[in-house]
Amino acid sequence: MIDFSLEIWYNISVNVGGVVMIVLLAGMETKKNTTEIAQKFNVEQEVSGFLKSKDFHLGAGILSQKGVFAAGTCISPMSIKETIENARSSAQQVNEYLNTL
Predict the structure, then answer these.
(1) Which backbone phi and psi does 10 adopt, to 5 degrees?
(2) Would you kindly state where each structural domain of the chain is located, as residue ranges?
(3) 39 membership: H or E segment, kind and range
(4) What is the DSSP secondary-structure string of 62-81?
(5) Which of 41, 49, 65, 80 is the most exposed place for a label (fewest CB within 10 A)?
(6) What pTM value is reported for the model?
(7) Distance between CA atoms of 24 and 69, rounded to whole angstroms?
């Protein structure tokens, strides 16, 4: 069963000039089964519980186990735009890996 719940944290503050500023943050945590998945594929996890990638900017989809790739919010909190960009990058990394076989 997929859990579509979303936890929203917010903080409302008023500055001295009387301007009200609202900061809205969406809290993102790993799924409860992320550790189980990491163990099944023998990949490392960050302290935060997300899957550990080789390098967030240059190899975000590459995990610690050769031939195992990931994309999106299983490696870190991301916006929808960032998730799409990360998925494209990971797909390219998979393609490059498959061409070496």
Answers:
(1) -145, 160
(2) 30-99
(3) helix 34-40
(4) EESSTT-B--GGGTS---HH
(5) 80
(6) 0.68
(7) 32
